[in-house]
């Protein structure tokens, strides 16, 4: 199966070369000209190529086991030594390529209240990441998520942006649902156009509904 995916990617790449680099064949004499285009045009062509590859992979993966897991939970911890907590929801979407292993994308959002001395602030956090998961034959599973983009939005303030990680374990012995526990670490490096260095360390307790 891996060889099939590699073959599809190779054929798609070769067929897309004329499109990406603007190669135009002429009937006679046999010559090839290269169109002049900007770096922005090149990036658009490369993005189109990646989209084509992703489409081929999605078609190929359709024969594999497809998984989706919406979940809801409660996040607790601290941001810059200040208590933070709030309800959260999200979903994991991916494929089981081989027994016990799956990977895919994850979306996560929480509205947390950060408590300061004599005051509090509501922050909406949105994380987008990629996960890899292993399911053990003893009703336990574990996963790692790399948060590619983490954004914090606060009323009256510029958004903060950063990255992070999540390490989770789940118990699947309950009917239909999975009881999950995750450690979340975020590092924020931007607030608007200003560079910052802030971090948050929290944990999440959630109930997931693995499908199918």
Question: What characteristics describe this protein?
Answer:
2 helices; alpha+beta; 212 residues; two-stranded antiparallel ribbon; disordered N terminus; eight-stranded antiparallel beta barrel
Secondary structure blueprint with pairings:
Layout: H1 2-21, E1 23-26, E2 31-34, H2 39-61, E3 65-79, E4 82-98, E5 101-116, E6 119-135, E7 140-154, E8 160-171, E9 178-191, E10 194-208
Antiparallel strand pairs: 1-2, 3-4, 3-10, 4-5, 5-6, 6-7, 7-8, 8-9, 9-10
Helix pairs in contact: 1-2
The major β-sheet equals:
8 strands, antiparallel, barrel
H/I helix tally: 2
Structural class: alpha+beta
Tell the overall outline.
flat
Instruction: Please state the CA-atom Rg, rounded to the nearest Å.
Output: 22 Å
Unreliable residue stretches: 1-6
**Share of residues in helices:** 10-25%
Strand content: over 45%
* H/E element order: HEEHEEEEEEEE
Terminus-to-terminus distance: 22 Å
Average pLDDT reading? 82
- Side by side, the strands of the main sheet go 3-4-5-6-7-8-9-10
Number of extended strands = 10
Question: How would you describe the overall organization of this protein?
Answer:
The chain is α+β, with helices and mostly antiparallel strands. It contains two helices and ten strands. The strands form two sheets. It has an eight-stranded antiparallel beta barrel. The chain is flat and about 50 Å long.
Tell me briefly what this model is.
By secondary structure, the protein is of the alpha+beta class.
């Amino acid at each position: 199966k891996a060889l099939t995916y590699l073959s599809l990617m190779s054929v798609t790449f070769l067929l897309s070369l004329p499109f990406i680099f603007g190669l135009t064949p002429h009937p006679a004499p046999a010559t090839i000209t290269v169109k002049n285009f900007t770096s922005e045009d090149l990036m658009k062509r490369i993005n189109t190529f990646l989209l084509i590859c992703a489409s081929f992979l999605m078609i190929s993966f359709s024969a594999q086991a497809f998984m989706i897991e919406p979940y809801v939970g409660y996040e607790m911890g601290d941001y810059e030594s200040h208590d933070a907590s709030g309800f959260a929801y999200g979903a994991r979407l991916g494929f089981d390529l081989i027994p016990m292993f799956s990977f895919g994308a994850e979306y996560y959002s929480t509205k947390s209240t950060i408590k300061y001395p004599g005051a509090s602030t509501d922050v909406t956090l949105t994380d987008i990441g990629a996960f890899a998961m292993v399911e053990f034959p003893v009703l336990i599973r574990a996963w790692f998520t790399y948060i590619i983009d983490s954004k914090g939005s606060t009323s009256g303030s510029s958004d903060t942006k950063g990255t992070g990680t999540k390490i989770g374990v789940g118990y699947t012995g309950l009917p239909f649902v999975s009881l999950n526990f995750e450690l979340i670490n975020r590092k924020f490096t931007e607030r608007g156009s200003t560079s910052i260095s802030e971090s948050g360390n929290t944990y999440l307790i959630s109930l997931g509904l693995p499908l199918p």
